[in-house]
Design goal:
This protein is mostly helical. Helices cover 67% and strands 0% of the residues.
């Protein structure tokens, strides 16, 4: 799927998600490669690692938030 086909639910979150993507890429040691080669030249495995870590962390965040809400 290209960026043009992506449906953004909360456009105001886009800058935060971009920062988060770069943060995860840096933690995985991929940020320099992305800076040098660009996102379009990354392997599917590399971008999948980034997306997978982002998803895992966002689910964890949501679970924590939901747990906090259930305590109220």
């Amino acid at each position: 799927m290209t960026d043009d086909n992506r449906q953004v639910v909360r456009p105001e979150a886009e800058p935060a998600l971009d920062r988060f993507k770069w943060e995860v890429a840096a933690e995985l040691g991929l940020d320099e490669k992305i800076k040098n080669k660009g996102w379009e030249n990354m392997t599917t495995r590399e971008v999948g690692k980034i997306g997978g870590q982002m998803t895992k962390r966002m689910i964890g965040f949501a679970e924590e938030h939901m747990a906090d809400e259930s305590k109220r």
